[in-house]
């Protein structure tokens, strides 16, 4: 073959027109692996053999040596094979072929060897196939090789033609025998073949959804055709019949299994098959109405992408860090090093290349942008909006840019199906990027104005249509602040978040300062100054080492992440973590995660400053206050809608929403571990600092040790006892927190997208997830309409709060005294039991005495650790409350993956304990009105827990009879009769006593301004939802869905039922039933009844009952085990009898989840408000993080590459589904309360409002519950699951997979039957929420 022929052939391959000429297209990279050839210096795979060709020059001279001749001949032979393969593929009319670029090296003109030491290692087989440089092979065998390769290709083609003819015959037979099925759009089949890469082959033929066996055979044949090339080239043509025989054996085996499965009851099977066919027919009719976007992906299909996802995210975060730190050269070299090697290139996506494009766009270097486009093409990737945006921005920065270049770019965009408006609606802009983009476009379109998406579409759910469309009667509440006040508050909050930390006074500062305390504080201050200097030096040295040690460009290292902040900021973060370390130490993993997260938060805040978003945020927020302030006009728009409108009006400049690349969990952990290692190695103290009698030597203040948690050994960082003693004795007056720990000083930014809302600068997730889990966020981003979710979160976050100062002062006085276990105020560590000291080597102790004393030591240490944790928790809460005592503040909200809402500040919020709830009141006060005082009294009785079975009137009368105790509690809480201390919720009861006292002593109680929140609690809310779903009359009555004169107590009802069963067993002589006489009460069964609806097992229920029985002093302890076993069985039996519909629904949900997860999918559903939910339970895999300190073993249970955890999926589905319904009910109530002008907050199924508006809230609450359950919830769930998991599944009736599919299909189609309960009765039920 001449050199001209080589060049012509190479040119032929490089032409794009080849794609159009081919009737059908094949991807070389996917379908023709033997022919895949890569760029210069990389590896070419020919029949599984790696051949490295480097530094080869073209020469017309004929090679002189035999060895050189062989090498040249070898190259020409390979080209013969490639040419033959191309011709074969061009003739192929079955496969869909995508053209891939194949580049050729120049032929050698010298005798230098072709192999390189740095290249790919060849296997022993490879070494025999290709002679190395310097070896002389047998000439005869060498010459025979090309003939053998051609023979293989010919044989392959013959086999392929035979299969095509065989398939055509079958299709003709099938057409004659069977009537045609309804055809639908062609689908892609993904098939995995042994020894091949994952291929997606588009047949281009419209296939029916009837899932006939023939269509499966077509797919199998196409797959075998596509993959035989590789197998043939590697193993020879003889392997084809061998594989065919294996396939026959496999088919016969499946046939036998199918016969065994279906042959037992022919009549029953026929009926079942008929039923399945009917269901499939119905599904096929419905499938056209369903959105294709929610069609499930097979686990295997997503696995490759998911495997690359974490690595891709790591690459993106590394490049962003390099660029932010100003090290553009490092970022550029790193990207090129990833791109050059095929094994690493697969982890790159278009977004990675776009990161570097944006850098070159800022610099205006269009030639570098062009190179990036070339790299994209080489990687087989298509430019996206971000790519074109970078190119156009660059053109906008070039004053001499030719209009032709801009036109060419815009036309290429149009060819790719992208519009100019998409750039402005979907791209995230920084600094002046948007202006530069607009400037470039106006070079060719001078009159162009961006058409912005105004997000005008409303929530599609019928439940909230009235809320969004009928606004004439709505009265949205205003905040009790002027616009100027709110703008000033914004500035204060912004300064707190810019600092990322806040230092406040501890409530222990009120204690008198002793001489020893002053001494310890001074010593600690001196030490911290010294530690800061040492850490600063150590950090700078380690950075210098890391900067030089990165010899391999493709290796990710921590150097860029250590350059994001000032060195002093890293040191401050480390010093803060030492101060917060508990005496018992902290897990290395938790400590490292916290350190890494603090760095990330500061980095995000600095990014926003660099991107100039802070100035724009201030401008929009100042305009937004016009909606909230009391001294401005009334609006009929929601906060989210107003924010969107303001963003559209101020569209110039940077984008506020998104733009920051989140760090993978592993990066956060690795950075944190590096910082912990630095602290352990460098922070030291003099051993004689507290006792001069000791020898002076420097000792570490932190120790890295190992401890056991259950059976697992984990790394632990423990402070030295000297440091612990100094910190405890100093009782320092200052506490430093991260800024997000504090409530906000201004109303939160309204949630308007998945990535934007809540805090001003601090990054916050809309949905809380396990560290590293990304599937929830991906699902949310695909969701088009979450308006109702955003609006309910915004309504909850817009509630203003203040501190109940008189009550806070009482709590702080008890806290600083000696605490109180009865009142839930933890005592100081000085009250902790002393840890006994003994010498294990002392011979005077017997073995049993030593064991007893060891247990005493362990128990004392455990008690001390628990007391310290509780004390610090209370200290943080009370100190934050005391810091905010003269402030008005807000709690931004987000949600968990089931949709349940939570305040973002973790320590101090209204979801906390009795103490924290008691010190919180609404900032806005409202008149009590005619019934407000009565509601305060009823609320007080509810808090005592004394009159649960009494009517509201009965509770009110009881409150009136104890008015003396109420007033005495308010006047003399610590020195009077102390009636309030015996309440279930003592501190909230005391706060209510004070409010009632103030109201009754006012001139006119109806005109009294009350800030106090009154609660209305659901009556076993989980069972309420089950009873409503099943329309279960008996269950509905038990949980107060049915109107009754007095409240029904389901716990007492179950206790009564269990007592009847016990009495019957006692009469028949059962010993344990006789022992339990007189001990079965409401308290014993309450927790189990409450949690059984949320999926508690018999094992968990037994532990709950065992705990309650141990609390009864009179109950004989030797019978606790048997009694708890007996009682949990009876409780489950009683519930089964009382809630028949509930059990059926629970079993249906459980079995559905079991079959879904067994088929390889995680369970997903959508709430009635449109919130998508996915259960993140997968089989646990171990991932090891290697650091210089230790190897951290991470147990990853949310990895979508792993199969679902069937047990967790099935056990969690019923409770998670019910939680998603109770969150939907809460959100609906919050929205309609907002439109009625109410103040509303919730603690899951406990709703709070002013005493004046309790009746209105109760009406809304009941109406929304009825509206929610009037929807066909279970039927809609069934339809969604059928659509998600039962469409597009092969239905080869004899396969095992089909049997599982059939079971799932029939189960999901049979929704549990419902009873006769009339939902409208809920509106009349007084005690539904009370």
Automatic annotation (TrEMBL):
Compositional bias segments (type: Low complexity): 181-197, 232-243
Catalysis performed (reactions): RNA(n) + a ribonucleoside 5'-triphosphate = RNA(n+1) + diphosphate
Subcellular location: Mitochondrion
Gene Ontology MF terms: DNA-directed RNA polymerase activity; mitochondrial promoter sequence-specific DNA binding
Source organism superkingdom: Eukaryota
DNA-directed RNA polymerase N-terminal domain: residues covered: 491-798
Database matches in SMART domains: RPOL_N (SM01311)
Region feature Disordered, mapped onto this chain: 106-217, 232-268
Amino acid composition bias (Basic and acidic residues), ranges on this chain: 148-158
Enzyme Commission numbers on file: 2.7.7.6
One Pfam family per UniProt: RPOL_N
One Gene Ontology term from the biological process aspect of the record: mitochondrial transcription
Residue ranges, compositional bias (Polar residues): 133-144
Assembly notes: Homodimer. Component of the mitochondrial transcription initiation complex, composed at least of TFB2M, TFAM and POLRMT. In this complex TFAM recruits POLRMT to the promoter whereas TFB2M induces structural changes in POLRMT to enable promoter opening and trapping of the DNA non-template strand. Upon metabolic stress, forms a complex composed of FOXO3, SIRT3 and mitochondrial RNA polymerase POLRMT; the complex is recruited to mtDNA in a SIRT3-dependent manner. Also forms a complex composed of FOXO3, SIRT3, TFAM and POLRMT.
General function of this protein: DNA-dependent RNA polymerase catalyzes the transcription of DNA into RNA using the four ribonucleoside triphosphates as substrates. DNA-dependent RNA polymerase catalyzes the transcription of mitochondrial DNA into RNA using the four ribonucleoside triphosphates as substrates. Component of the mitochondrial transcription initiation complex, composed at least of TFB2M, TFAM and POLRMT that is required for basal transcription of mitochondrial DNA. In this complex, TFAM recruits POLRMT to a specific promoter whereas TFB2M induces structural changes in POLRMT to enable promoter opening and trapping of the DNA non-template strand. Has DNA primase activity.
Family the UniProt entry places it in: Belongs to the phage and mitochondrial RNA polymerase family.
Identification of the protein by name: DNA-directed RNA polymerase
């Amino acid at each position: 073959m001449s050199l001209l022929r080589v060049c012509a052939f190479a040119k032929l391959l490089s032409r794009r027109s080849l794609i159009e000429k081919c009737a059908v297209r094949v991807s070389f990279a996917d379908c023709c692996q033997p022919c895949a050839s890569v760029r210069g210096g990389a590896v070419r795979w020919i029949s599984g053999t790696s051949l490295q060709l480097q530094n080869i020059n073209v020469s017309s001279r004929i090679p002189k040596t035999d060895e050189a001749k062989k090498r040249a001949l070898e190259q020409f032979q390979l080209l013969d094979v490639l040419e033959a393969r191309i011709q074969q593929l061009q003739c192929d009319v079955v496969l869909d072929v995508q053209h891939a670029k194949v580049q050729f090296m120049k032929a050698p003109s010298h005798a230098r060897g072709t192999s390189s030491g740095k290249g790919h290692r060849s296997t022993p087989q490879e070494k025999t196939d290709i002679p190395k440089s310097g070896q002389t092979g047998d000439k005869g065998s060498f010459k025979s090789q090309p003939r053998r390769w051609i023979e293989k290709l010919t044989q392959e083609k013959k086999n392929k033609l035979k299969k095509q003819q065989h398939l055509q015959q079958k299709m003709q037979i099938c057409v004659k025998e069977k009537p045609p099925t309804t055809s639908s759009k062609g689908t892609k089949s993904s098939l995995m073949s042994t020894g091949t890469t994952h291929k997606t082959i588009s047949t281009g033929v419209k296939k029916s959804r009837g899932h006939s066996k023939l269509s499966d055979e077509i797919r199998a044949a196409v797959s075998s055709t596509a993959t035989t090339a590789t197998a043939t080239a590697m193993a020879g043509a003889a392997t084809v019949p061998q594989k065919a025989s294996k396939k026959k054996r496999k088919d016969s085996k499946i046939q036998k299994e199918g016969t065994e499965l279906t042959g037992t009851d022919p009549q029953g099977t026929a009926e079942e098959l008929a039923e399945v066919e009917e269901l499939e027919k119905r599904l096929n009719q419905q499938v056209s109405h369903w959105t294709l976007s929610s069609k499930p992906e097979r686990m295997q299909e997503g696995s490759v992408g998911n495997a690359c996802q974490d690595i891709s995210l790591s690459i993106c975060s590394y490049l962003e860090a390099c660029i932010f730190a100003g090290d553009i050269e490092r970022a550029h070299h790193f990207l090129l090093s990833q791109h050059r090697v095929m094994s690493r290139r697969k982890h790159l996506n278009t977004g990675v290349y776009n990161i570097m494009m944006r850098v070159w766009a800022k610099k205006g270097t269009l030639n570098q942008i062009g190179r990036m486009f070339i790299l994209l093409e080489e990687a087989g990737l298509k430019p996206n909006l971000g790519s074109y945006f970078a190119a156009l921005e660059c053109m906008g920065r070039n004053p001499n840019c030719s209009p032709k270049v801009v036109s060419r770019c815009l036309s290429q965009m149009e060819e790719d199906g992208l519009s100019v408006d998409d750039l402005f609606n979907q791209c995230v802009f920084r600094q002046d990027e948007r202006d530069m983009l607009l400037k470039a476009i106006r070079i060719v379109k001078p009159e162009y104005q961006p058409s912005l998406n105004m997000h005008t579409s409303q929530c599609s759910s019928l439940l909230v249509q009235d809320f969004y469309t009928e606004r004439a009667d709505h009265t949205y509440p205003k905040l009790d602040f002027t616009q100027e006040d709110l703008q000033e508050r914004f500035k204060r909050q912004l300064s707190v978040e810019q600092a990322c930390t806040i230092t406040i006074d501890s409530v222990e500062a009120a204690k008198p300062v002793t001489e020893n305390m002053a001494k310890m504080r001074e010593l600690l201050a001196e030490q911290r100054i010294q530690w800061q200097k040492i850490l600063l030096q150590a950090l700078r040295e380690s950075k210098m080492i890391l900067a030089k040690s990165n010899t391999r460009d493709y290796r990710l290292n921590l150097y860029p992440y250590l350059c994001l902040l000032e060195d002093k900021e890293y040191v401050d973060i480390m010093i803060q973590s030492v101060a917060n370390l508990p005496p018992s130490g902290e897990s290395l993993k938790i400590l490292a995660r916290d350190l890494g997260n603090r760095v990330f938060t500061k980095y995000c805040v600095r990014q926003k400053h660099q991107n100039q978003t802070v100035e724009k945020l201030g401008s929009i927020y100042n305009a937004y206050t016009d909606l909230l302030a009391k001294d401005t006009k009334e609006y009929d728009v929601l906060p989210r809608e107003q924010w969107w409108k303001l963003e559209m009006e101020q569209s110039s400049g940077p984008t506020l929403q998104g733009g920051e690349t989140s760090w993978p969990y592993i990066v956060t952990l690795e950075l944190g571990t590096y910082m912990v290692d630095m602290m352990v190695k460098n922070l030291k103290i003099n051993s004689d600092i507290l006792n001069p009698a000791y020898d002076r030597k420097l000792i570490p203040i932190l120790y890295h040790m190992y401890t056991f948690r259950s059976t697992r050994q984990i790394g632990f960082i423990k402070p030295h006892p000297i440091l612990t003693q100094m910190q405890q004795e100093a009782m320092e007056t200052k506490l430093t927190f991260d800024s997000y720990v504090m409530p906000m000083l201004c109303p939160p930014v309204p949630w308007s997208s998945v990535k934007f809302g809540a805090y001003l600068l601090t990054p916050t997730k809309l949905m809380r997830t396990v560290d590293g889990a990304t599937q929830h966020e991906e699902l949310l981003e695909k969701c088009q309409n979450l308006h109702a979710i955003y609006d309910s979160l915004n309504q909850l976050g817009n509630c203003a709060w203040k501190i109940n100062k008189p009550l806070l002062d009482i709590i702080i006085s008890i806290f600083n005294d000696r605490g109180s276990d009865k009142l839930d105020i933890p005592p100081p560590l000085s009250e902790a039991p002393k840890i006994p000291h003994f010498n294990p080597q002392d011979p005077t102790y017997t073995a049993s005495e030593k064991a007893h004393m060891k247990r005493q030591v362990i128990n004392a240490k455990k008690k001390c650790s628990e007391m310290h944790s509780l004390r610090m928790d209370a200290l943080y809460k009370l100190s934050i409350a005391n810091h905010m005592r003269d402030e008005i503040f807000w709690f931004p909200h987000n949600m968990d993956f089931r949709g349940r809402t939570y305040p973002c500040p973790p320590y101090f919020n209204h979801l906390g304990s009795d103490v924290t709830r008691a010190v919180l009141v609404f900032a806005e006060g409202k008149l009590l009105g005619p019934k407000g005082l009565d509601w305060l009294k009823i609320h007080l009785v509810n808090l005592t827990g004394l009159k649960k079975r009494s009517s509201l009137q009965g509770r009110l009368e009881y409150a009136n009879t104890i008015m003396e105790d109420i007033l005495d509690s308010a006047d003399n809480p610590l020195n009077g009769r102390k009636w309030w201390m015996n309440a279930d919720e003592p501190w909230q009861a005391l706060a209510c006593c004070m409010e009632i006292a103030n109201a009754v002593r006012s001139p006119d109680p109806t005109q009294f301004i009350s800030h106090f929140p009154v609660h209305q609690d659901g009556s076993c809310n989980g069972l309420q939802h089950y009873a409503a779903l099943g329309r279960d009359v008996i269950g509905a009555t038990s949980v107060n869905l049915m109107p009754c004169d007095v409240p029904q107590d389901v716990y007492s009802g179950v206790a009564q039922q269990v007592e009847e069963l016990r009495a019957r067993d006692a009469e028949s002589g059962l010993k344990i039933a006789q022992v339990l006489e007189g001990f079965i009460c409401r308290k014993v069964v309450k927790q189990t009844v409450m949690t059984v609806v949320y999926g508690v097992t018999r094992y968990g229920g037994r532990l709950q009952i065992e705990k309650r029985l141990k609390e009864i002093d009179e109950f004989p302890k030797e019978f606790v085990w048997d009694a708890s076993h007996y009682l949990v069985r009876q409780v489950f039996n009683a519930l089964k009898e009382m809630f028949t519909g509930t059990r059926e629904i629970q079993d249906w949900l459980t079995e559905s989840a079991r079959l879904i997860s067994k088929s390889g999918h995680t369970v997903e559903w959508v709430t009635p408000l449109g919130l998508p939910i996915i259960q993140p339970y997968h089989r646990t895999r171990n991932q090891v993080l290697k650091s210089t300190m230790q190897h951290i073993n991470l147990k990853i249970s949310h990895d979508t590459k792993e199969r679902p955890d069937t047990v967790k999926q099935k056990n969690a589905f019923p409770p998670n589904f019910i939680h998603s319904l109770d969150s939907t009910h809460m959100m609906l109530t919050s929205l309609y309360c907002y439109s009625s002008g109410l103040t509303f907050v919730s603690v899951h199924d406990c709703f709070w409002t002013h005493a004046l508006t309790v009746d209105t809230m109760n009406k809304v609450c009941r109406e929304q519950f009825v509206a929610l359950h009037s929807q066909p919830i279970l039927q809609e769930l069934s339809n969604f699951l059928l659509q998600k998991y039962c469409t597009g599944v092969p239905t080869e009736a004899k396969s095992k997979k089909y049997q599982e599919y059939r079971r799932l299909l029939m189960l999901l189609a049979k929704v549990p039957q419902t009873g006769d309960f009339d939902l409208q009765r809920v509106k009349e039920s007084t005690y539904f929420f009370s």
